[in-house]
Structures are given as C-alpha cells and as structure tokens.
Amino acid sequence: MLDSPKVTKSKPIMATSPIAIVSYGCEHLQSLLKENRKMTMQQYVLLVQTVNDRHSLLLHTYKEHVAADGRPVSSLTPTYLCLQCPNVFTEEGRDKHWESKSHGFSVESRNGYLYCQNCEDFVYDPTLETLRMRGGRKKRKLDDYLNSSGDDSRLMAANSTFVPCRANGLRGLYNMGQTCFMSVVLQSLLHNPFVKSFYLSEGHRASECEKESCTSCAFDEIFTEFHSVEKTEGFGAVNMLIGSWMGAQALAGYQQQDAHEYMQFILNALHSENSNESDAYSDDCPCIIHSTFYGKLQSTVTCNKCRNVTTALDPMMDLSVDLRNQVEKKEREQNKLKKDKPEGGKAGAKKKQDMDVDIRDCLERFTSKEALGATEYTCQNCDATQQKVTKQLSLQVLPPVLAIHLKRFEHSKSNSTKIEMRVNFPLQLDLFPYTSRARADQANSPHKGAYSSLNTAGPSQKIMYELSSVVVHQGDINGGHYTSYSREGMDWFMFDDSRVTLATEAEVLNCQAYLLFYVVEKLEVGPAPGVSTPKE
Amino acid sequence: MSNTSKAGGDASADGKMMVPPQDFAGLAGQIFEDVLYNIIHDQVLEVHRSEKMLRMTTAASQMQILISQSSVDPFSTPTNSVAPTPIKASASTPITSAPNINLNTTAATYTPGIGIVPRGNPFVTVPSNQITCPHCRLPRLLHPIDGVGAQLPEDLDKQYCTRHPWISKPHHDVYGNPYPKEQAPAPTTKKARELLKKQERMEKDSTPASQGTDAGGDNGSVAGGEASIGGLLGNNSSSNSAALLTKLSAVNGKPASYVPWHTCPRCKRSLLITKFAQHLEKCLGIAGRQSSRNAAAKISGNGVGSVNGSAAPSRHGTPIPGLGALGNGSSGPVPSSGNGAKRKASTLVNDNSGIGDDEEEDADKPAKKKKKYQKKDKGGKEEKASKANGEKNDMERENEEKTPKLMIKVNNHGVPKSVISRSEVDGNGTSSKEKSRLKG
C-alpha cells in the first residue's frame, strides 16, 4: 500500500545535508548479501514479482506438514515465501522451517516485505526496498536519479540552502474576496504529486519567463513560498489572481465563479505557458498538464443495420459525469418497486440506500451503450442513409490523474437548481471496467454479462486509482462556498481558504463532492523521455 | 491467525470441494475474520515500516555525526559541542576524508567500505524519544503540543525539529493557531489602521517574552505573561510548561487571525488581502462587465455532451493571440472593447490604470516587486507600522515615479486590444453548451 504514489509524493529530495542512510536493513541481511548477493537479489525480485503479478492463490497455497497426506492447503491470511528455498509457509510453519533448515529470511505474501528470523521482525533494507517498490520490474532510468551516488547528494547539499522542516506545503490561501473557487483548485493542484514534482524541480522558472501575467510564474511563486519558508499563515495569491483575470475575462471580476470552469482555465493556461509553440497544438503535447491530466476518450458508434463500427478518439481533460440520469433512474426504480408489492420487502430495505448515488454507477452509465435515434446519425456504409446506431464511450488512454466533475445541476425551463444529493466515492477506484479494453472484452463475450469483480481477476486486470483531492461546494447554484480536501502522505487535510485542518477519511468521504481528483496508484515509467517521469 | 484453511481442508476430505451446509455459517465467520486480519496486517505493517525507517535513519544520522566528528576535517573540528550537531557542519564535511576506522554506537556500526549498518533491532536500540529529523537532525516531537492527544515533551530546554505532529483542535488549524475571529471589523480608513497598529505595538511591548507571537486567543497571551514570570522563578513546573508552550508555538509563526496587507502591484496601494479582489476589479477596470457576460451566457445555446464539455477546451483552448484577436473582432459581443471605448471617452487616466497597463508594468516591475515582498516579510510588524505612517509620502513618491511611465503607456495604447481579445477565447468558449456553474 505504501507503493508508488507515495514514492512520488514523499518529501522531495530537497536541499539539505545529505540524508544519512543505512547500507543494510540488519546485520543478518548484511552477511547474507555478502555471501550470496546476486542469488539473493534475483530470488527476491522473483518473489516480489510473484507477489505482485501472480494469482494470489499461488502465494497462499502451502503444503501442510502436519496433515498426514501433505495435500496443499490454501489460506486467506498472509503466508511467508522462503527466500532461500521454494517453499511457502504459514507463520508457524515459517518458524519451524527456521528451526529445521535455518533459512533466515522469508517474504510476506501481501506486500512483499522481508522478514528476518534472527531479528524476529520485518526488516527494510534500502536496496531490497527499492526492488520491492518497483514491483520487481526492470531497472528504470529514474533509479539513477534516486540512487545517485553520495557524491551527487553531497554536491547538492553543498550548493543549496537549508529548507526548514516545517515548510512542507501545508498552508492556506487567503480569500481575497470571493476567490474561494480559485483557492480550492489551486490547493488541489498544489497537492497533486505530478504537478508538485514538476514545479519543485524547477519545471517553470519565473526568472526566465517573459510572459506577462503568467499564471505559471504565479504558481511557481506559490510553490516556492509554500516549500521554502517557515510560515504557517495563509498566502495571498495576488499574482495568480491577476494572471487568471487577465487570462480569462469570463472569470474576472469581484464575483463568485465555478471551480470547474476555473480548473479548465488554469489547466489550459498552465499548458500553454509550459509548452513550446510547436507542441501546443499537437495531440500529444509533452507539457506537464497534458502528460498529467489528459487521456483519450474513445467513442464507438455501431450502425444497427450493417454493424459497421466507427471509432473516434477525443482528448479529455476531465470526465463530466451526469447525476441527473442517476436521480431519475433511482426514482424510477423506486416507483417500480412500490408498484410491485411482492418485492416490497426488498424495497423497504433498499430505500435508504437508493437516495445515494455511487460514482461507479455514474461511470458505468457514462461508458454504457446508448441508443441514438435515426435522425442523429448518417451511416456512410449504408449508402449514407440515416440509421439507428448504438454509441458507446470508453476510456482509451487513462491519464495519470483523473479529474471527475460531478454535474450537480438540474435545468428546467425557468431555472436551474443544484442537485444536493450525496454521491458516494471510494478512496480507491478501479478504472479498468471503464476502459476501451474492458468494454471490448465485454462485447466479445456477452455471456459473461456485466463486468464482475467476482471473477478471478488477477492484479493485472485492475487499474487502481487513489483519491487525492476533493473539491466541495456548499450552498446553492447561485452562490456558496468552496472548500477542498487533499491528501498529503497518509493524512487528509481540509483547506478552507486560509485555514488548514486535519480531516478524517470519513469526513472526506461524506462530503458533497463537486470535483474529484484520482491519482494512479502505480505508474510504469517507460523509456520515452517526457515530463511524466516523476522528477523526484 | 484463524484456521479457515483447515476448515476448507476438512471439507475437501472426500476429494470434492464441498462445504457441508452446517459448516457454512462457521466458515463465513472465519472468512470474515481472515479478511479483517488482512486489513489489520497491512495497516500495522505500514506503520511498522515508517516507524522503523525513522529509527534506522536516526541511527544512521547519529553515526554520520560521529563520523564527521572523528574525521580530521578543519570544518568540523570546531563544532564538537552538543549532540545535535548543526546541520551545516556535517553538510560541508566531505566524506572523502571519512575515517578509516570502525565506529560503533549503540544503534549502528560503521565499517569503511561497507557503510552504516544497524546494530540489532532499531526498535530496541533507538528509544522513541531519541528519534531525530533526518533533515535538520534535531529531535522530533512525538506528540502534538495541543489539542487531541497533546503531551508536553519531557525535556523543556531541548530544541526540537520544527515539524511538529499535526494539531487537531476545534477552531484551530494544524499548527495550533486559532481561527480568525468571525467578522472582526476590518479597519477601512487609514486612521483606524494606524490606531490598530499602535495598539498591537503596545500589547507587544507589555509581553516581551511572547516573542511577538500573541497566539491570538486567551491561551497565547496567558502563556506569554506567565513565561516572563517563569523565567524569574526558575523551575516552577506550571510556568515552565507555559513557557514551553510559548516557545514551541513561537515556531508556529503568525496566528491565523493575522490578515496581511498587500501592496497592489498596479497602483501600489496597500490593501487588506481579503479586500483585494474587490480592489483589483476596479484597478484593472473590469467592473461592471457582469451584465455583458450574463448576456453572453444566455445567448450560447443548449445541448448535451459532457464529453465535449471537457474535451473541447483542450483542442481549441489555446489560441494564438493573433487569431483570437481576429476571431473576436468579427463575431459576438466583445464586452471589453465596448467598455474600453466608453472608458476612453470618459477619462484617459482611468484607462491607463486599466488593462492596457499590464505589459508595461509587468515588463519593468518584477524586480522591484520582489524586493518589496521580501522587505515586508522580514520587517514584520514594526516596519509595517512605520510604513503605514509614512505611507502617504511613499505613495506620492511612487506617483511621481510613475508619471513618465504613463506617457509611454499612452503611446503604447493601440496595442492592448489583442491582449484583451486573446483572453476572450479561453477554454469554455465553444464547449460547455449547458451553462452549468456552481458559484462559490
């Protein structure tokens, strides 16, 4: 659980004295590695790969020595994989194995931690931990930065100033007068691991930027202030306000604004300020914003007559998810259940839950098939006649950070209102079911029906995202107040203008979310250079 | 550990994986227990890992200090005073001169060529009150000093790492600063402001021990008062803890009730930060445009397409300034140009402070701006107070300085149009047909 996202999120390697690290996790491991370094490393990598990629049944099946016939037994609880021989044990079995064979190290089956029998404790060896966190995969270029030799870090320390330990980026932004829509979006970006590492690694240098009212410079200013000064009070993001107002006339002025609209603006502004002229219009812009927030949405249109399939790819920056349909659906269901009295008992039990909507239902609906009327589409294959078609959206390319916008609006002829209903959202979200691949699989094997998490999906079948920030709106459609929650390390914080307070997970999950930011749990950095490589 | 596995094993004794119905309830319970066990297992290990890593790093940095002390180095020899060696000394120590001898502490061993290896279990060898920050190498506070789970550290005179455990206390932020009082009437006139400053200075003078950080609430001032007494009386426990609280919270910086003043980068007027947007609207000359914006919102049609809503801006959202100017000039209501014309007709001065300014001002000001911020940061309240007194003069001077620039700007006046229109074509222009906003 402490894996990748935290790697990028951990305290940046800042200019301090070189942090002293131990060379080995414990004395016993030192002697083992001394004797047989290569074998041990290989074996550990293999075991970590097994833990990460293989079916968990394999890990949790062991031969019980107590049983006479020695048949394999599967356990739900963690098992221990011996580092020195190919055996799987329970906790007791592991200790017995130590007594009989004196194999002193074993790998725990849930996270791949190393257990030392001599210490009678888990040990965290710096070398093996990097292997573990990488999931036993091949060495990446990134490691050269991470494990830069002592010389580099000493050089860094000698040429940099000390950053106070307190300066860890947890500060509020003053409300400059109806600017909370800006503060919440900025806070969400400030605590976004990708954006953070970009700016902290001098991705945009204000001193070298010649643009006027540059929001990226203003953002850089905030990052510098938050991560280098020992202050705890809020910060007045005046330059950011000016930059935003100059950049977006629609958002300018002393009035309340929509946070989602501001997010669209600021991401566009940061994109254009951080990319070259040539890249700015290409589909695969390498700028920090595109490589962080942009995915591709595939729209598949199938003609009902000739079954001709046309697909189109659209870049997407966030998913705007409809709640209105969910509300209607729930209402319909309820009405239906009321009519069918036989099912009454079930309805009564369900009634309370029905008022809540889950974000996964919304996404499910978003990527489900939709029948379009004949008037809306002209099939080229059927002699350019208008045909009834089925349209389906799916995520073709997932962005490292997925922003979800909950459309909490209801429009009638006369007025618009806000949908106040609660939307459930998980701390960890599996996006695999909504990808084009999953949708295609589903179409190919219709007997399987809807994607079920019950099937024995291995870890590779899941693409986990972790909640990173939530923007909350309180009030009605015409005005109110925005606050936000962001996670930093293992802690959640609530940002209410200049106030920063600790928040519990329950508080976060119970809030009336408007924007959700999910960050991918694991990220494989390919050999291709790009900003997507976390620079920390 | 439960024995679900055994139950499963029994069930499969006849060769088929069958669970007898009567066992099912018990099995379900065991599965539930196992799943719970797994969750706890993961959580505990996570905490275990972070705690153990902290202790290992502590052991390593203690060893590092020892290494730097025993190495013959001109930089580190003078600083062999107290245990938490200042950061700079160890930082400047080149390891090339690392000693060729084995070193031992209770928690670690150092062997040349191998490095630092922990001795035994760091949970045993490094007591929790010895955990140091890997960055500044000062001891870490283990408990919050206020709010939920608050505990005062044993050693009152020790200097601690400024990274304290987060404070969870109602109406206080994570640093233990109280919230600003609701609706504290902000002084709007300069006279009132000066009066307030005077009062603040008086308060500060009366409690010198509080180091200028009156924690805002009653807590802080009481602590400040007692601190001075505590210093006189010596080791009185209650006053000591109060002094400590003050000392520790002194690290916390300004109380949350503090609302800074900020100089407007355009007109150089000093403003309360909370009133800044209001001022900026006037200063930039964008007031009164709401009506035209509302109109524009009504004109744009309705439709579905959430996807487009988010996707389109990325495609079309980064216009070339020139193009934007063209597009805007030809189509649609351009509120800015209309307004600008109006303003031009009425007052020339107003226009200068308007949007046309930004190129000029941003181009030559940044260096100056930065200086100003720094001054403010360091100077603290005293300087600001004096500044408030001399403010009028400052402003006058600045106006004088400004005049030549105004001339240039007038010359430049034709240009800004493109600037205005570039921004008109921002992200949402084409896309979100449903004008859906939650204002806040």
Automatic annotation (TrEMBL), chain A:
Boundaries of every UBP-type domain copy: 40-142
GO MF term (any one): zinc ion binding
Name assigned to this protein: Ubiquitin carboxyl-terminal hydrolase
Pfam families assigned: UCH, zf-UBP
Lineage: Eukaryota, Fungi, Dikarya, Ascomycota, Pezizomycotina
Transmembrane stretches, start-end: none
PANTHER family to which the protein is assigned, alphabetical: UBIQUITIN CARBOXYL-TERMINAL HYDROLASE (PTHR21646), UBIQUITIN CARBOXYL-TERMINAL HYDROLASE 22 (PTHR21646:SF33)
Disordered as annotated region, ranges: 328-352
Domain USP, first and last residues per copy: 171-521
Any single GO BP term: protein deubiquitination
Catalytically driven reaction(s): Thiol-dependent hydrolysis of ester, thioester, amide, peptide and isopeptide bonds formed by the C-terminal Gly of ubiquitin (a 76-residue protein attached to proteins as an intracellular targeting signal)
Family of the protein in this entry: Belongs to the peptidase C19 family. UBP8 subfamily.
UniProt biased composition (Basic and acidic residues): 328-344
GO annotations of cellular component type: nucleus
Keywords per UniProt: Hydrolase, Metal-binding, Nucleus, Protease, Thiol protease, Transcription, Transcription regulation, Ubl conjugation pathway, Zinc, Zinc-finger
Class of enzymatic activity (EC top level): hydrolase
KW RNA-binding (keyword) present: no
Main location class: nucleus
Enzyme Commission numbers on file: 3.4.19.12
Subcellular location per the Swiss-Prot or TrEMBL entry: Nucleus
TrEMBL record, chain B:
Stretches with biased composition (Gly residues): 214-223
Any one of the GO BP annotations: chromatin organization
Keywords: Activator, Chromatin regulator, Metal-binding, Nucleus, Transcription, Transcription regulation, Zinc, Zinc-finger
Subcellular location, record wording: Nucleus
Positions with biased composition (Basic and acidic residues): 376-404
Family: Belongs to the SGF11 family.
GO molecular function per UniProt: transcription coactivator activity; zinc ion binding
This protein's GO CC annotations: DUBm complex; SAGA complex
Compositionally biased tracts (Low complexity): 331-340
Keyword Ligase: no
Main location: nucleus
Stretch list, region Disordered: 199-223, 307-440
Protein name in the entry: SAGA-associated factor 11
A Pfam family that the UniProt record links to this protein: Sgf11
Top-level taxon of origin: Eukaryota
